[in-house]
Amino acid sequence: MESGWDFLPIYLGPMLVFGLGYKLVARIVEISKRTTSPPIADFIGARYGRHQQLGMLVALIALVGVLPYIALQLKAVSVSFAVLAAPAAHARCRIPPC
Length: 98
Known about the structure:
mainly alpha
Protein backbone atom coordinates (compact mmCIF):
# COMPACT_ATOMS: atom_id res chain seq x y z
CA MET A 1 0.00 0.00 0.00
CA GLU A 2 1.42 3.30 -1.07
CA SER A 3 -0.81 5.68 0.85
CA GLY A 4 -3.77 5.87 3.18
CA TRP A 5 -6.11 6.42 0.23
CA ASP A 6 -5.97 2.69 -0.47
CA PHE A 7 -8.21 2.12 2.57
CA LEU A 8 -10.89 4.58 1.42
CA PRO A 9 -13.18 2.04 -0.34
CA ILE A 10 -13.08 -0.25 2.70
CA TYR A 11 -14.36 2.47 5.03
CA LEU A 12 -16.54 4.38 2.59
CA GLY A 13 -19.24 1.71 2.27
CA PRO A 14 -20.06 1.39 5.99
CA MET A 15 -19.88 5.17 6.44
CA LEU A 16 -22.40 5.67 3.64
CA VAL A 17 -24.73 2.98 4.97
CA PHE A 18 -24.74 4.27 8.54
CA GLY A 19 -24.63 7.93 7.50
CA LEU A 20 -27.29 7.95 4.81
CA GLY A 21 -29.26 4.78 5.50
CA TYR A 22 -29.61 4.99 9.29
CA LYS A 23 -33.43 4.79 9.09
CA LEU A 24 -33.21 1.62 6.99
CA VAL A 25 -30.66 0.07 9.36
CA ALA A 26 -32.83 0.97 12.39
CA ARG A 27 -35.89 -0.61 10.77
CA ILE A 28 -33.99 -3.78 9.87
CA VAL A 29 -32.72 -4.07 13.46
CA GLU A 30 -36.23 -3.53 14.84
CA ILE A 31 -37.81 -6.15 12.58
CA SER A 32 -35.02 -8.67 13.15
CA LYS A 33 -35.47 -8.38 16.93
CA ARG A 34 -39.17 -9.11 16.54
CA THR A 35 -38.70 -12.11 14.25
CA THR A 36 -35.57 -13.46 16.00
CA SER A 37 -33.78 -14.18 12.70
CA PRO A 38 -30.14 -13.36 13.42
CA PRO A 39 -28.48 -14.26 10.07
CA ILE A 40 -29.22 -11.70 7.36
CA ALA A 41 -29.95 -14.45 4.81
CA ASP A 42 -32.61 -16.01 7.08
CA PHE A 43 -34.04 -12.58 7.83
CA ILE A 44 -34.46 -11.60 4.17
CA GLY A 45 -35.63 -15.09 3.19
CA ALA A 46 -38.29 -15.12 5.94
CA ARG A 47 -39.34 -11.58 5.18
CA TYR A 48 -40.13 -12.44 1.56
CA GLY A 49 -42.01 -15.73 1.86
CA ARG A 50 -39.34 -18.21 3.01
CA HIS A 51 -37.60 -18.35 -0.39
CA GLN A 52 -34.48 -20.47 -0.05
CA GLN A 53 -33.02 -19.14 -3.31
CA LEU A 54 -33.34 -15.56 -2.08
CA GLY A 55 -31.63 -16.50 1.17
CA MET A 56 -28.76 -18.09 -0.76
CA LEU A 57 -28.42 -14.99 -2.94
CA VAL A 58 -28.30 -12.73 0.12
CA ALA A 59 -25.70 -15.00 1.76
CA LEU A 60 -23.57 -14.86 -1.40
CA ILE A 61 -23.82 -11.06 -1.58
CA ALA A 62 -22.90 -10.81 2.12
CA LEU A 63 -19.91 -13.09 1.56
CA VAL A 64 -18.68 -10.97 -1.35
CA GLY A 65 -19.21 -7.84 0.76
CA VAL A 66 -17.16 -9.23 3.64
CA LEU A 67 -14.19 -10.35 1.53
CA PRO A 68 -12.44 -6.92 1.53
CA TYR A 69 -12.57 -6.84 5.33
CA ILE A 70 -11.14 -10.36 5.58
CA ALA A 71 -8.38 -9.33 3.18
CA LEU A 72 -7.68 -6.27 5.32
CA GLN A 73 -7.38 -8.42 8.43
CA LEU A 74 -5.01 -10.84 6.70
CA LYS A 75 -2.92 -7.91 5.47
CA ALA A 76 -2.76 -6.51 9.01
CA VAL A 77 -1.62 -9.88 10.37
CA SER A 78 1.10 -10.20 7.72
CA VAL A 79 2.33 -6.63 8.28
CA SER A 80 2.34 -7.17 12.04
CA PHE A 81 4.31 -10.36 11.63
CA ALA A 82 6.80 -8.58 9.36
CA VAL A 83 7.24 -5.79 11.92
CA LEU A 84 7.73 -8.24 14.78
CA ALA A 85 10.11 -10.43 12.78
CA ALA A 86 12.20 -7.49 11.51
CA PRO A 87 14.24 -7.02 14.72
CA ALA A 88 15.34 -10.66 14.58
CA ALA A 89 16.60 -10.19 11.03
CA HIS A 90 18.53 -7.05 12.01
CA ALA A 91 19.88 -8.38 15.31
CA ARG A 92 23.45 -8.25 14.04
CA CYS A 93 23.13 -4.57 13.14
CA ARG A 94 23.69 -1.79 15.62
CA ILE A 95 21.83 0.83 13.53
CA PRO A 96 18.44 -0.44 12.19
CA PRO A 97 17.71 -1.07 9.39
CA CYS A 98 20.82 -2.51 7.76
